[in-house]
TrEMBL record:
It comes from Caldimonas brevitalea. Residues 23-173 form the Uracil-DNA glycosylase-like domain. InterPro entries: Hypoxan-DNA_Glyclase, Uracil-DNA_glycosylase-like, Uracil-DNA_glycosylase-like_sf. This is DNA glycosylase. It comes from the Bacteria.
Length: 179
């Protein structure tokens, strides 16, 4: 199924490559999965979630868990994430996009979000990281889990201060025993 048909690519003249996202970061005991929209250019190049240096994702987790995740190698960050009961994935599996802005996403294809229930049988909730991800809330709500819309950690979301984002994220993480 394709989303974002309102911005669909116009015919075969489009020579942009289809971009593919990253694999889910989950474990059987994952209680909460944060769903972004689609990895940024920096994340795709690094093959790491939230790789842009100004993205607040890793600093927020660091503040919530009182550990400097950015000082750890990426693989160790993911170990901490899994051990704490958090999962990371994106709503879209593939798309076309110039740059990193969500508003530039075209011809997006959804990830198999129902598969999360098999990958993480302990899953309690999904949290959409920002507005573009939250466009899929009707689909995620159909999974029968608690669903939240969190303020985007993207540097493009400058209208929310770090402290305000942190408070919103803290409330959801606390509700599901992640802090």
């Amino acid at each position: 199924m394709s989303r974002r048909d309102d911005r669909a690519v116009s015919g075969p003249a489009d020579t942009r490559d289809v971009l593919s996202g990253l694999a889910p970061v989950v474990a059987p005991h994952t209680r909460l999965v944060v769903l972004g929209s689609f990895p940024s250019v920096a994340s795709l190049q690094a093959q790491q979630y939230y790789a842009h240096p100004r993205n607040h994702f890793w600093p927020i987790l660091s503040a919530l868990w009182d550990v400097d995740l950015r000082a750890l190698p990426y693989a160790e960050r993911l170990e901490v994430v899994r051990a704490r009961g958090l999962g990371i994935w994106d709503v879209y599996a593939r798309c076309r996009r110039e740059g990193s802005l969500d508003s530039a996403i075209e011809a997006a294809e959804l990830n198999d979000l129902p598969a999360l229930l098999q990958l993480a049988p302990g899953l309690q909730a999904l949290a959409h990281n920002g507005g573009e991800s939250a466009r899929s809330m009707k689909l995620t709500q159909a999974l029968g889990l608690a669903v939240y819309r969190l303020p985007s950690t993207s540097p493009a979301n400058a209208s929310w201060s770090f402290e305000r984002k942190l408070a919103a994220w803290r409330a959801v993480f606390d509700r599901h025993g992640l802090i």
